[in-house]
Amino acid sequence: MYFLPRLTFSKMRTYKYALALTSQLPFCSTPLRLDAYNKCQFSCAFCFAKARGGNSDAKGVQFASASALRARLNRVQSGDVRNAIDEFLQRRVPLQFGGMNDPFSPWELKYGVGLELLKVLADFKYPTLISTKSVVPAESDYLAVLRSGNFYVRVSFTGASIETSQKLELLVPEWGERRRLIQGLSNAGVAVSIRLQPLVFGDEESLVELLGLLANDGAKHVSAEYLKWPIESSSKEFGRLNSLLPGMLDKYFELGAKKIGREYVLPPEVKLPNLVELKHRVDELGMVFGFAETELLHLNPYQSCCNAADRFLEDCNPFEGTFTSIIKEGGEEEIRLPQPLKKWLPQYSVFSHLNSRSRPAQTGDTPAERYQKMLRDKWNSKDWRGGPLSYWGIESSSSSDKNGNQVYLRAPELRQLLEKNNLNA
Ligand code: SF4
């Protein structure tokens, strides 16, 4: 491949928040993300990163610094740990490379920041999940680095018919090219997952053939998550999505979609039968399936939930200070809040990474104690969002434990589903 002359770092603006913890901490086993660039050039119609601003609103592109990452990993390795992110790195919690933006959109050909970051991560054998739609990693210099490190690549596809997919992912390499990437990675011995995100409701059947081809190409794992419809009705991105999927939003309302945060989300009862069907198909093809919907994360038997990173990466420790872990490890029927939570927790504060609704009042407790207090408050909150009731099949009981914490129950339909599909952790 022809690469344009690459710029030196002195001329490039640094992306300050390239390495961060996500606000999904109470739910997610892999909450540490790294992004090579502060934006992405693929312009997928369902991607609202741009409309939602944050750092992607910044003028011009900004770049992660590979030398800063190397210095940080060296410092952490020497035992000099200064904040919660350092602690997650020292613990070797898997890193999601491309957590916010595709790390290899066309800028990569000009700047090569993604490759420099991969080299650093490979030198430390740092457990890393890569999410991409780009075919740049199929190039020989990328493959060589990927082969030498501790990487697991998630290749994303829109879960829809090829026609719909092409409309929604206008600037993304076509399916055939992504298949060649999967074949290249697989031949190089790098584990590959297929990330069906977003799944388009009503288009599930059209994926059957694609999954068969991808299994033959060497994919080992598939995760799926339905489209969440953004609420920003006045944005141009909303108008574009509406015109590409006409009638879909009305369908969402008809099916009982709920507004959660800044999105309309289909109810789990509507999604689950299709996802279970998809899982059976994936099982038959000899791959592993992951439920990526937040309210279904407890259905995944792996420590690392939907991405099963603990199966494909070496020397890694998914984060378990989450409701997902507590629910998965709870009793067959009753689920109690362990007090104290006997899981690794960071000793430095994580609260600047959480949204304001999740931050507890400052008290004299240590940050780890305050994190547990936040979980306890959410556990006992009447609001179904943000606590155990946000998971499908979890119900309140009328009792509390000896510490006064609410006891929850696994509903019979959840127990049946877990048993029938051999999903118990
Ligand atoms: S590739 Fe990912 S980050 Fe880039 S526009 Fe598409 S969905 Fe957004």
Describe the structure.
The chain has 425 residues and is α/β, with parallel strands linked by helices. The chain folds into 2 domains: 9-312, Aldolase class I (TIM Barrel, Alpha-Beta Barrel), CATH 3.20.20; 323-420, no CATH class. Helix content is 33%, strand content 15%. The chain has helices at 66-77, 84-91, 107-111, 113-123, 140-148, 162-168, 175-187, 208-217, 236-244, 248-254, 268-284, 309-312, 323-329, 367-380, 412-420, and strands at residues 19-21, 32-34, 95-97, 128-132, 151-159, 191-199, 221-226, 229-230, 258-260, 263-265, 288-291, 334-335, 394-400, 406-410. The strands form 3 sheets. Strands 1-2-3-4-5-6-7-11 form an 8-stranded mixed β-sheet, covered by helices on one side. Strand 6 (191-199), helix 8 and strand 7 (221-226) form a beta-alpha-beta unit. The longest helix has 17 residues, at 268-284. It is globular. The termini are far apart. Iron/sulfur cluster (SF4) is lined by residues 40, 42-44, 47, 49, 101-102, 133.
Blueprint (SSEs and pairs):
Layout: E1 19-21, E2 32-34, H1 66-77, H2 84-91, E3 95-97, H3 107-111, H4 113-123, E4 128-132, H5 140-148, E5 151-159, H6 162-168, H7 175-187, E6 191-199, H8 208-217, E7 221-226, E8 229-230, H9 236-244, H10 248-254, E9 258-260, E10 263-265, H11 268-284, E11 288-291, H12 309-312, H13 323-329, E12 334-335, H14 367-380, E13 394-400, E14 406-410, H15 412-420
Parallel strand pairs: 2-3, 3-4, 4-5, 5-6, 6-7, 7-11
Antiparallel strand pairs: 1-2, 8-10, 9-10, 12-14, 13-14
The protein binds iron/sulfur cluster.
Residues 40, 42-44, 47, 49, 101-102, 133 line the site of iron/sulfur cluster.
